[in-house]
Design brief:
The structure holds 2 protein chains of 2 kinds. Chain A has 4 helices and no strands. Chain A is mostly helical. In chain A, helix 1 (11-26) crosses helix 2 (31-45). Among the domains of chain B are: 19-93, Ubiquitin-like (UB roll) (Roll); 314-376 and 583-770, Rossmann fold (3-Layer(aba) Sandwich), CATH 3.40.50; 379-576, Dimethylsulfoxide Reductase, domain 2 (3-Layer(aba) Sandwich); 814-941, Beta Barrel (Barwin-like endoglucanases). Chain B has 29 helices and 36 strands. The longest helix of chain B has 19 residues, at 318-336. The relative contact order of chain B is 0.11. Classes of the chains: A mainly alpha, B alpha/beta.
Amino acid sequence: MNDVAHETITGPRKLVKMANQIGDFFKSYPEETAIEGIRDHIAKFWNKKMQHELFGFMDSEKETGLSALVEKAVTKLR
Amino acid sequence: MTLIKELDYGTPIRVSEQMVTLTIDGASITVPAGTSVMAAAMKAGTAIPKLCATDSLEPFGSCRMCLVEIEGRRGTPASCTTLVEPGMVVKTQSDNLHKLRKGVMELYISDHPLDCLTCSANGDCELQDMAGVVGLREVRYGKDVANHFETTSPLSLLKDESNPYFTYDPAKCIVCNRCVRACEEVQGTFALTIEGRGFDSRVSAGGVSFLESDCVSCGACVQACPTATLMENTVIAKGQPEHSAVTTCAYCGVGCSFKAEMQGDEVIRMVPYKEGKANEGHSCVKGRFAWGYATHTDRITKPMIRKKITDEWREVSWDEAIGYAASEFKRIQKTYGKDAVGAITSSRCTNEEVFLVQKLVRAAFGNNNVDTCARVCHSPTGYGLSKTFGTSAGTQDFKSVAKADVVLVIGANPTDGHPVFASRLKKRLRAGAKLIVADPRRIDLVKSPHIKAEHHLALLPGTNVALLDSLAHVVVTEGLVNETFVRERCEWQDFEVWARFVAEERNSPEAMEAFTGVPADEVRKAARLYAKGGNAAIYYGLGVTEHSQGSTTVMAMANLAMATGNIGRDGVGVNPLRGQNNVQGSCDMGSFPHEFSGYRHVSDDSTREMFQSLWGVELSNEQGLRIPNMLDEAVDGGFKGIYIQGEDIAQSDPNTHHVTSGLEAMECVVIQDLFLCETAKYAHVFLPGSSFLEKDGTFTNAERRISRVRKVMEPKSGKAEWQITMDLAKALGYEMHYKHPSEIMDEIAALTPTFQNVSYAKLNEMGSIQWPCNDKAPEGTPIMHVDRFVRGKGKFMITDYVPTEERTGPRFPLLLTTGRILSQYNVGAQTRRTENNVWHNEDVLEIHPFDAEQRGITSGDLVMLASRAGDIALRAEISERMQPGVVYTTFHHAKTGANVITTDNSDWATNCPEYKVTAVEVRRTNHYSDWQEKNNREEIELKRIATSIAAE
């Protein structure tokens, strides 16, 4: 069954996935509230290294895969 | 120390505001209305003779031993079934009563063997006691007729020794019905009956052996039996215990109170303690009987180290093991940085032990990289309830369910996972409360003897939020909101935003049916029942939390409870059924990387300064890594050392490949455990832990109840776990000075506002305490949010349904959901080392007949279960409990490797893994998977001990 072996995502791509999930929760709120909610969540629960890894990824990649809302929130966090 | 014996009032203690005064044997006594004459006499200090009565059971009135005389009444009424009345004048002793009781006793003994000296109940037999009390000196009857006890008699029946923990000896039975009634009234299983009529009558497990019957081995019948008819095998083998101590069970989050009954330092039996408020004298098969693991020969009792995981383990002194671990952690921090190490605390350890491990991380490691296994079970509970209500815990005490009129059980299987709570719940349901079950499987609560759920919402795994939003839609759009409650108690603006959201057509039961698979009409009826059926209580388990939207689901339940005003009084609430005994406690104790004890963020300067000043060390204000983040970092090369207290992440955590890759990438893994667990295969230092019988401390159960754990034997390794952590901290350069765990609790109380008034002295005085316990609530807090929410006003949160990324498709067309069963517990490290294996010795895959037929599978076939994460082989069991398209298994057996299948998807807010939804395929196979073969090899290769044979 090796053909189906799942490659676990780690590193920045995993962080993008996690950040987008947070965005999915807050997207039903008005944009300002949502941005603040996402920013606050990442600030409170991700350690600094994870935060910086995401910032670095945003700087180095054109297509991060982050949703527009999350990108705004993360930019505000920096 | 002596043997603790609770008073038996003969009939249940009644509560009433109306009091009744009567006279018993010339003395006046006042008792609540509804009390029996028997219980009133006992309260006055007079024990009326009895055989069929005991205060855990409703009065039965069959033995005729408890007869009394009442002025103005004819005859001699039974005191157990006669209720007190104002002015009643009762005589419990007279020549006539004496004669009658003696006559009854003589008849009983005429069909009972006179083998008291060699009987297992010798010294603890109510029949023997009553014969003494009535002064029985001779038995005139039964000499020339058939009886039940002589082996040559035609009425003689064989002993039933099929249950591994107790024996049924029909020869000793006096047909008092206490066991049958205990099975019905206390446990609610209805497995026992009386077979035959008149003199032929005997207790029976329904015409089959106890093991083959519906008996769940809770022990209630054994406890209720007044003779040696139902007796623990340990007592038969070793005799009666001579002293006991009250302690707390080390299994599930119900946290039952037990008397550990001892001979010297050997446990003879564990008997549920009547005064224990979590269980009130009841138990399940695990707590009552499955404690043999504590002295199992697999226990590792000497510290061990090795340089590489492929080396043999080498037994060393405590000093060498602690010194090696500390030097490795120091080396790693020097080489890779301060944040390259961390720890995991255990929900199987005491509050005091957990508190010390997180203290070690923050004070000695100098970072906040500490997490706990709540991460993988109830972390969404903490997050969701704190957002909506303001505190990270359930709202009620267990007793509250007795006042519920409607109970919504969602994502929990209490009869298997939390059996003692399930018995309380079933008792209330039998008395008329209505039940709604939301679960993909047809769990026992849906339909079992005298229980039938009003609605079974058999949703598809992963659609909890869709279901709860559609229930809320009905509440809002059909005018079922309790507006008075919401206006007074909640943030009105948030409510309005939420109400508009759930009222949208896309959240209607009709729209959501496409996702949940639950007929809209059934959802509408369930919502109306929940909103308008009286006191409505929600009980939930890991079927709620272990999803990508676990935290959202918790908030959605809180929204529903607030909207209908079902918060802040008896009989209502939102109640997590916690997995392990001290999950609540380990969370309370500051095990999370972002929080100190009492759920205060590490960036909060005033809180941190308080800890700094007491601990005398600078603390980091930056939150640390959570377990999944630690493993990700390890795989990426940045996290190199971990101290794991009593957790087996290689078996319990999802996506085993990823977990073991992370562990393999680390340079120092320190395991503190009872056994060489799966994670120990990847460890470099093994520090032998101590069982709950070997230490003092406290556990905090799902109802926030702090209960004492009391040492009844010395630690087998020579050290209790709090001492090991102290030694490791010292070797790391940070000294702690505690002489007893009570001093650790004093420090917890000094640093944690919700524990402010908690102390061992107060616990000894009150038995147990539900936090918050402080100046505002000096006796603790059974029910939370009574007049106001902890956060002030309740906050409605928008809970949009976001389907999980884990989808079925052509390659993986079925959904796997995982769970637990009654006889095994968690990773099975404890229960697999007991006789509980007779009920469950391997994990099986439950599959619906349709899915099985399509694949040519029959029960017992070996099948390959494959997901995007990996594959394993296990036996199939065809079951109509499942719905088509959904399969189920447990993760109790390491050799199965159920978590090889689960993925690393997780809750958006807390990273709690999505154990409950994995897309899979099932097909017949004739071989075990590559992972299982490798695991079997490593079971030997990675567990070799140089000086003795590997243990597990």
